[in-house]
Amino acid sequence: MLAHLLSAVLALSSIVIASAQTTGRAIKAGGIELPSDTTVRVPSPDGRWVLVASPLGLSNEKTLVLEDRETHKKSVIKRYDRTIRIGWSPDGNAFFLNDELGSNIEEAYIYWPKESKPLELDSPILLKDSEAKRVPADHTYFRVLRWVTSKTMLVEYCGHNSGSSAQQFDFIYRISLMGLDSSSLRIDRVSREVNPSRLSAAECTQ
Questions:
Q1: What pairs with residue 189 in β-bridges?
Q2: Which residue, among 95, 97, 23, has the nearest Cα to 63 in the 3D structure?
Q3: 98: closest CA among 123, 120, 131, 126?
Q4: What is the pLDDT at residue 99?
Q5: Does 196 have pLDDT greater than 90?
Q6: Range with the lowest mean pLDDT among 2-6, 66-70, 76-80, 83-87?
């Protein structure tokens, strides 16, 4: 009897946790936020690849380099000015990169170490979700929050607009990678919040 009761409690806990993870308020951003003043090495889970973020001398520009530990080949993935956040998939076959281009814009990408071009996530999300596309915004932030599996992730589109009818918004999506291009994405919205800015709601996930 006690064993059955314990199993039921654990099952209920799993349901609650899974439900909480589909809302922006319950999710914390994963990955690693890369600083601007020191070199950081982030190996893939399988140990094959290493992402190396480095400052460039006295310049404000930073670089993200991908190292192949088998061939010792190095390639520049990104040159950036502000902050980026990266996170390897559990199998090490891909990583996300959130690029904070400015105080009012952030873009999200998926990279595959063996492919030459990344997959940008902003446009496919707005193409799929017409409501999100219609929300007026002058501050837009697309960001991968975390990997759910090696092929699935949670992605956030949040921000706000200024003016007399100012709004804050926060949309969370579950995105599955069925291939290497935008046509092979499966995008499902799992939460939505749009409010007048004065209500101090719909903040982006930290």
A1: 173
A2: 97
A3: 120
A4: 95
A5: no
A6: 2-6
What would the pLDDT profile of 90-127 be if each residue is shown by its tens digit? 999 999 999 999 889 999 999 999 998 999 999 999 99
Tokens of 115: 């492919």
Interacting residues of 22 by C-beta distance below 8 A, sequence separation 6+: 172, 174, 190, 191
Residues 6+ apart with CB under 8 A from 126: 132, 133, 157
Smallest Cα–Cα separation from 153: which of 102, 87, 203, 62? 87
Total length of the chain: 206
Q: Which amino acid is at 5?
A: L
Give yes or no for a contact between 18 and 148, defined as CB atoms under 8 angstroms apart: no
1 has a pLDDT exceeding 60: no
- 20 Cβ neighbours under 8 A, 6+ residues apart: 26
DSSP annotation of 37 reads S
The terminus-to-terminus CA distance of the chain in angstroms comes to 42
Map tokens 């903040």 to a residue.
203
| Whether the predicted pLDDT of 129 surpasses 90 | yes
